[in-house]
Design goal:
Layout (H helix, E strand, L loop, with lengths): L4 H14 L4 H19 L10 H9 L6 H14 L2 H13 L5 H16 L3 H18 L4 H12 L9 H20 L10 H29 L9 H5 L4 H24 L5 H18 L5 H34 L2 H10 L4 H16 L5 H18 L4 H17 L5 H9 L6 H24 L2 H11 L1
């Protein structure tokens, strides 16, 4: 019975989460409950709980995690100051003459919003509110319109600078050092958030290109499903070039400044995120859309999202300590090592489990609970940490789209008009899921898509 307690602990946490309880308190509560039962029955050494204060102190002193509220602030400010809305309208006019142009503009704006927010829920809701009514009014097939918005909204998982990559980078860095220490390497190499940003850049851009090619394919094979913007509507717009420059250049420069300073080694992710936050305020001021009421709203949203992330991290830390105290790490390691297929079999199973967990859990819980357990084991098997991190991020992005429980589908369903059925949303995302899985398979077959750029830049 003792060997099954880690499994029961994990299943218990998932069941309590599915009952609708708060994620952070479900993880911490389940962990403490099993710790109390184990201490009473003699199956758990309560000395493990003495490490909780050190864990919490480590979270508070982790400078990398300070980037999370700063990136959230940057994205929310760009959204609340209507910069994202103007960007979408302008890009739609730019690509309007071609069939599928509106869908392509939604994809490209989704990429830029992903680079500025990294929050899937915020991006999908924003794109749904701004672009879905326009696409439907212009005669777009509802499935194509909803699928494009959901898929574009999830690009925040993989396009840097992404909160997902910041959190994954921190976890992968710790796991990589632990794996090297387990191998007897006492001067371990490090992997940084900047490495993951570089590693995710090419796969992320390939994904955007694949989305655009799919919309072009639809424009050729079913032109009526993705019509162009009427000529008279485009003719009514004056000085389109000036409008494009005004709407597109400032946010692109801001993202380039933030990302370039990280990739160039000029700033840490936290320093670059602070530049992004201040830059978003400056852009809002230049647009004359900055006010104290908007600042209060942005700060309130930032506080809510950041508090959620950090309280989940606290709950996950308690859960993982108890899981380790029950010998869960050893159980998972032995199980993965005994799988047929060696490293390939272990990686395939981990990716499948994370994909399925993505139906029920948000990326934050998976990043803080599952990845710290499996990553050291996989890295001990010789996998590249950057490749592993990008594979995990891409996998989590795919699970956001997958019916019936994909989070992006629920976000869009919440803001879509009643005329859009849930089945139309499900049908719309299926081609994009196939694209995602193909990208995942391509990255698995060709790891240098993720590892080449970091090696070139950082040597």
């Amino acid at each position: 019975m003792m060997e099954f307690l880690p499994l029961l602990l994990f299943i218990g946490a998932v069941v309590i989460l599915l009952l609708g309880y708060s994620v952070a308190f479900s993880l911490a509560g389940t962990g403490l409950l099993f710790a109390a039962i184990g201490a009473y029955t003699g199956h758990f050494d309560s000395v493990f709980l003495e490490a909780i204060p050190n864990r919490l102190f480590g979270i508070m002193n982790n400078e990398v995690l300070i980037a999370v509220p700063l990136f959230v602030f940057m994205g929310v400010m760009l959204e609340k100051s209507k910069i994202a809305e103007e960007l979408l309208d302008t890009m739609a006019l730019l690509f309007g003459p071609m069939r599928g142009g509106l869908g392509i503009s939604v994809t490209l704006v989704g990429m830029l919003l992903a680079a500025s927010t990294g929050i899937v829920g915020a991006t999908v809701v924003t794109m749904g509110l701004l672009s879905l009514p326009t696409m439907l009014r212009r005669g777009y097939d509802p499935s194509i319109a909803t699928g494009t918005i959901c898929a574009s909204g999830t690009l925040g998982q993989i396009i840097p600078p992404s909160i997902v990559l910041v959190l994954l980078g921190d976890v992968i860095s710790s796991a990589y050092q632990q794996a090297q220490l387990d191998q007897g390497i006492f001067s371990p190499d490090t992997v940084t958030v900047g490495d993951l940003f570089l590693g995710a850049l090419i796969p992320g851009l390939l994904l955007v290109a694949a989305y655009v090619l799919y919309l072009v394919f639809k424009a050729i094979t079913k032109p009526d499903s993705v019509p162009a913007i009427p000529e008279e509507e485009r003719a009514a717009v004056e000085n389109l070039t000036g409008r494009v420059m005004r709407a597109l250049v400032p946010p692109v420069l801001l993202v380039a400044l933030v990302l370039g300073s990280i990739l160039g080694g000029l700033a840490t992710p936290t320093e670059a995120a602070s530049v992004g936050a201040v830059g978003a305020i400056v852009l809002a001021m230049l647009r004359k859309s900055f006010s104290l009421s908007i600042l209060r709203e942005v700060m309130r949203s930032t506080t809510q999202v950041s508090s959620m992330v950090f309280i989940i991290l606290v709950g996950a830390s308690i859960f993982s300590l108890v899981f380790r105290g029950y010998g869960g790490d050893d159980m998972v390691r032995d199980f993965l090592h005994d799988l047929p297929g060696g490293v390939f079999g272990a990686m395939l199973l981990v990716m499948l489990v994370i994909f399925l967990l993505g139906f029920f859990l948000d990326f934050i819980e998976i990043t803080f609970v599952v990845v710290p357990i499996v990553a050291p084991i996989l890295l001990n098997m010789g996998l590249d940490p950057v490749w592993l991190g990008v594979m995990l991020a891409l996998n989590l992005q795919t699970s956001f789209l997958t019916p019936p429980f994909g989070f992006a589908l629920f976000y869009l369903r919440g803001v879509a008009p009643d005329s859009i059925t849930t089945m139309q949303i499900y049908r719309g995302v299926i081609p994009f899921i196939i694209i995602q899985l193909a990208a995942l398979a391509l990255l698995a077959y060709w790891p240098s898509l993720a590892t080449w750029l970091p090696e070139v830049v950082y040597g």
